[in-house]
Structure formats: structure tokens, C-alpha cells
Amino acid sequence: MAKKQSTNTIRNKRASFDYDIKDTLLAGLVLTGAETRSLREHHGSLQGAFVQIKDNEAWLVNALITPLKTNVANLPSEVQNRNRKLLLKRREIDSLIQAKTQGNTVVPIKLLTNGRYIKVEIGIGRGKRKYDKRQTIKQRDQDRDAKRAIKS
User: Fold this and answer.
1) Any idea of the CA torsion for 104, 82, 35, 110, to the nearest 10 degrees?
2) Which overall architecture, per CATH, does domain 9-151 show?
3) Domains of the chain by residue range
4) What is the pLDDT along the chain (152 residues), one digit of tens a residue?
């Protein structure tokens, strides 16, 4: 039986496949009320999103938050994909800047909506090459076959 994932998260599945994540941080987000309600109803996506450092501030870029059907005003796509500020401590931002200068990438891994606040887990990692991705797929298939053999 498959493991049931937490219903209070929005995941970026491509991040763990495309990047070798070394370190993770938890950051708050600056959102509007409508965006908060939409995320609590899982109307969001982190696919293609990334973290950018501008003027010593961290920004979540290209994260899609679609409005709820109950909202009267339909938001245009540029408002749905707007840049959102990440709430991090100064030393965490400094570590992100240092990781970027070392050639690492900073990507959002998941949005957590289970508490009072909505937080985003961001990961620092290096991009995988094509042969690394093939190795990941091969290892996943071998693990799946081993589990099947144990069950039967």
C-alpha cells in the first residue's frame, strides 16, 4: 500500500528529481488574504518556481497561486505569478547568497499550510546531470522491485 502523503503540503516534485538537495531552510511568505485562502485549499503550484536574491532580500519567483472560484474578481496571470517576498533571518539570507556564489541553486521544495502561518521549505542544491537522473530512476525501480519481492 502506498504511503499517504500529508494533505497540508503542496510539493515541487521536480525539485528532488532535477536537483541534489544538500540543505533545507524554512521561510515565511508575504501573502495577501486571498492568496492565503487559495493555498489552504491547495490552489497553488511550485512547478518552475525558484528563489532569487535581490537587494539582500529573498524572493519566491514564478510560483502560481490560482484564485478560488468564490472570488468575484478573476486575477490576471501576472498577479497569480507575482514575486513574493520570503521572510528569512539575515544570516539565512547570507548563507543563501554564499551558496549562490558557490554555484548552487535555491529552489522551493514544498509549501506548508498546516499551521497558523504558511511557510515554504526551500532547498539548496546542485543541478543533476542526465546520467545522475538515469541513476535515480534505476535505483527507484530496483527499490520498487525489491519491495515487491519481499511482499510476495
Assistant:
1) -20
2) Beta Barrel (2.40)
3) 9-151
4) 455 555 678 888 888 878 888 999 999 999 988 888 888 888 889 998 999 999 999 999 999 888 887 754 565 655 777 899 999 999 999 999 999 999 999 999 999 988 888 999 999 998 878 777 888 889 989 999 999 999 88
Nearest Cα to Cα of residue 126 among 12, 13, 47, 16: 16
Report pTM. Answer: 0.76
- Integer-rounded Cα radius of gyration of the chain: 18
Listed residue (27, 139, 137) closest to 91, CA to CA: 27
**Nearest 5°: CA angle at 10, between 47 and 99?**
60
CA distances from 23 to 72, 73, 144 (A): 41, 39, 26
